Give the backbone structure.
Amino acid sequence: MKEYTHNDWRGSTGGMPWMQRALVKLFRFIPLWFCYGVMSLVIPFYMLFDRRGYRASYRFFRRRVGRSAVGSFFSVYANEFRMGQVVLDRFAFYAGRRFDLQIEGMDRYLAMADAEPGFIQVSSHVGNYELAGYSLRAEKKRIHALVFSGETATVMQQRAEMFHSSNIAMVPVATDMSHLFVLNAALVDGEVVSMPGDRIHGSSKSIACLFMGAPAKFPAGPFMLAAQREVAMLAVFVMKEGLRRYRVFVRPLEVASDPEAPSRKRAEALAACFAGELEAVVRRYPTQWFNFYDFWQ
C-alpha cells in the first residue's frame, strides 16, 4: 500500500463544516473532559481504518523513539489521543474557552518585537502552535502567518476572527508561489513572518538535516528567506501539559555569521539548528509529534 509522503500529506482538520460549527457551539456548554472521554472511544477506529497513518506513527515510535513493539502500539494510541485533544482545544478556544499558557523566552520575543528589523518565527506540527497566535503578540508589528489553503471554511473563518484581534494576517499558500512575495514584503517593512519549518508544500526545494537519528528533509523556504533577507529567526513550540495548560517555548536560531558565505550555507546552518531544537522538543513530548507520514522517506 502506498505511504504518505511530504508531498501528498495535507493534514487538514477532519469533519464536515456543519459538524465543526456545531462543535464550537457545543463547547459553550460542554466541559473539555467530557469531549476527551467521547473521543477516546473513537480513536481505535482511526487506528484500524487509517492504516497508512498508523504505520507511519508506529514506525516513528519504534525506530526513532526506540520503544518496544507493545510500547509503540500504545504510544500510537496516545499520539492519536493527543492529536484529538489539540484539535478539540482549538474549537474550545473558538468558543471562548481560555487556556493557561506558560511562556519560556517571552523576554527575547518582546525585545525582537520592539526592535526595528523584521524577523521570522518558524513553527512545526507538534503540539498546538495555533495557540501561539493568541499569546505571542508583537504590538508594534503585524504578523503574517503562512497557512495551508486547503483547510475547511469553518476553521479558516474562526482563525480569521481570532487572529484579527491579535494583529495577525493569514497568508494562504498559493500554487503560483505568490505568497513568497507577500512574506518578503513584510520582512522589508520590518514586520513578522510566521512559517512552518517541517513540511514541504508547493516548492520541492529542501535541506537535509540529521533529525531523530537519521537524515530528513526540511523545507528550504523559511531558512533561505531568512538567509537572503539577513533577518533573525525564532523557533516556537506550544506543547500541551494538562487539561487546560500549555507550555510555550521560544528558541532563537543562532548560527555563526560569515559575510563571505553564500546564503545557501547560512540557510543550511539555520535548518540544522531548527532540527536540533525540534528534536529536543519531540524527545520531551514524543506523543505530540503530528506528522503522520514517513518523515524520513
